[in-house]
């Protein structure tokens, strides 16, 4: 991970995010801290990453998400050469979904 982002301010932000307890709290916090466009850009990148992991083509991804090929390429580079953060989160979401699906 880049040492450039490891600052006290980023640590404080991450502590704040980790304190959120549910989706509604996430909406409340992120609507205050981000502009609508920033939040939509983050969610778009996450959707692009999911679609790339599902082996969708750049054309399919661009049509569905509205992401530019530059954004898709940047996300793809993070998936292939990054810190595996996307994969970590995807695995956790899949695990949660499997657990929810088996509960009655």
From TrEMBL:
Coiled coil stretches, renumbered: none
Domain of life, source organism: Bacteria
Alphabetized InterPro entries for the sequence: Trp_repress, Trp_repressor/repl_initiator, TrpR-like_sf, YecD_YerC
GO molecular-function term, one example from the UniProt record: sequence-specific DNA binding
NCBIfam families named in the record: yecD_yerC
Xref: PANTHER family: LMO1763 PROTEIN, TRPR-LIKE PROTEIN YERC_YECD
Protein name: TrpR YerC/YecD
């Amino acid at each position: 991970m880049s040492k450039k982002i490891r600052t006290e301010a980023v640590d404080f932000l991450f502590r704040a995010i980790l304190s959120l307890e549910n989706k509604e709290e996430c909406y409340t916090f992120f609507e205050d801290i981000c502009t609508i466009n920033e939040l939509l850009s983050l969610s778009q990148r996450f959707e692009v990453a999911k679609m790339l992991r599902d082996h969708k083509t750049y054309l399919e991804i661009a049509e569905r998400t509205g992401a530019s090929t530059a954004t898709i390429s940047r996300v793809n580079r993070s998936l292939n050469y990054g810190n595996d953060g996307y994969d970590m989160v995807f695995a956790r979401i899949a695990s949660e979904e499997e657990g929810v699906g088996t509960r009655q």
